[in-house]
Specification:
Blueprint: E1 6-9, E2 13-14, E3 26-31, E4 34-39, E5 45-49, E6 89-92, E7 95-98, H1 99-104, E8 108-110, E9 116-118, H2 122-138, H3 146-159, H4 161-177, H5 182-193, H6 197-221, H7 226-236, H8 239-250, H9 255-271
Antiparallel strand pairs: 1-2, 1-3, 3-4, 4-5, 6-7, 8-9
Helix pairs in contact: 3-4, 3-6, 4-5, 4-8, 5-6, 6-7
Length: 272
């Protein structure tokens, strides 16, 4: 038995199948996969191919947004934005809707010049949030307590920024490789500015303590067990990576803490 989805008479006007009479020159019995056109006068038949046009077919080449699916109520694509009005049909997530309805739903907005454009989608909002998060992750922050900040400022005046950067890199490497050479770094500092080794070592220890404390607190604020993560880092990660992370923190760069948090999380998954 024919599955009537739609019946059309000349000029494409849809009608109920019960109203068909021999006075109609042709009728079409349409199904999902095709159909048959019947000449009522001669009973001649002709196979029909089901319509396969989708919203994507109506879009200009290279466009995939909501507004590129704009078409008239009778299905003609609209390429001129000025021709779009409240009765224009667009496709939103596979569903056809009038511009007026989409406007009320907040899917599209009306511009000052009278044209319409797609409102910021959830995907766009997510992308913006991710970009903001990434920007925040790479933003330089002041990680030092007032006393150590003052010590660093004094060292930069006495030694210059480049020499201080070298000292911090050596201190980070010493801590990362756990080689107990903090006194060696302190000795370099002492020789450079004429401090006694004990004072130099106290300065280095204080700076690196701030670095670790800040890293732990930062991760904890992100919902990670910061103290456990740092302990895991010193026991399980490559010392070069540890040194890079610690040295980055010396300059307020927190971007590698995201790497540590992810590695620590994955370690828990592997154990499970």
């Amino acid at each position: 038995m024919t599955n009537f989805i739609e019946v059309k008479v000349p000029h494409g006007i849809t009608t109920d199948k019960e109203l068909l009479t021999p006075n109609h020159s042709t009728v079409a019995y349409l199904q999902d996969t095709g159909g048959v056109q019947v000449d009522c006068a001669t009973s001649a038949t002709q196979s029909l191919r089901a319509q396969t046009t989708t919203a994507a077919d109506l879009r200009p080449a290279g466009q995939n947004n909501v507004m590129s699916s704009a078409r008239t109520p009778w299905g003609s694509p609209i390429s001129d934005p000025s021709k779009i009005n409240n009765q224009t049909i667009i496709t939103v997530k596979g569903i056809s809707a009038e511009i007026g309805q989409a406007l009320q739903a907040g899917i599209v907005v009306k511009n000052a010049d009278g044209t319409y454009s797609e409102a910021a989608s959830s995907a766009t909002q997510v992308a913006k949030a991710q970009a903001a998060k990434q920007q925040a992750a790479t933003k330089k922050v002041d990680i030092f307590t007032p006393g150590n900040r003052k010590n660093l400022a004094g060292l930069q005046l006495l030694m210059g920024s480049t020499a201080v950067e070298g000292i911090l890199a050596k201190a980070s490497a010493s801590l990362a490789f756990k080689d107990g050479d903090a006194t060696g770094v302190a000795r370099v500092l002492a020789d450079a500015i004429g401090l006694d080794p004990a004072t130099s070592e106290s300065i280095i220890d204080g700076i690196m303590m701030d670095v670790q404390n800040f890293g732990i607190d930062y991760l904890t604020a992100q919902g990670v067990d910061g103290e456990a993560a740092f302990e895991w880092m010193f026991d399980n990660t490559d010392p070069v990576q540890r040194a890079n992370l610690l040295n980055a923190l010396c300059f307020g760069d927190v971007s590698m803490l995201g790497w540590l948090a992810e590695q620590y999380r994955l370690s828990g998954i592997k154990k499970a």
